[in-house]
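Protein Entry — a single chain follows
Next Lines — sequence and tokenised fold
***
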Amino acid sequence: MPTLLYRAAIHDLRGTEILPLNLLREQHPDLYEREAGKYSQRPETMDQPVHPLGCRWNDVVFLSPVHPAPIFDALRESGRIGPGALDFWTVDAELLEPDRTCILLKRYDPEFRPQPASDYLPYSPATVATLSTPSDRALTRLRTLNATEPLFPWADIPHILHRGPLSITLFRTPDGRPVRV
């Protein structure tokens, strides 16, 4: 059975690649404005270093080793989101290039920036497989969010960071069908 990585489905994808923010800014400024808005409360994050890849936060595509269901179940328990279907895509961890990919463990407080170089690991599907279960700390934080705290669902979930774009042909829907653009 393959080790899967997860990302939110993109309903208004343009082109045939998932782009990091820097490329999105160049190619689709309107989409960049929307996506960069997620960082409006912490704009300095977009320029933080991704040590192993020799680039910045806005040069990478983000994936998760954790299935989104337990994350969103915990958010529902907090009352911060309602019921609804999760819309996500998967990619086989074996398909990513290890020299363009790394793991950020996110062991530090979500407000701790920049993430220290010691919190990054070299990428391997075997390591990713060990990170597929969210920590009790992460789930407890999500279950106990109050109405004024920011959601940040993946704040303390390990991140898989890939430098540069990823072809949409690598991704599948939850039922295993190729993603169509």
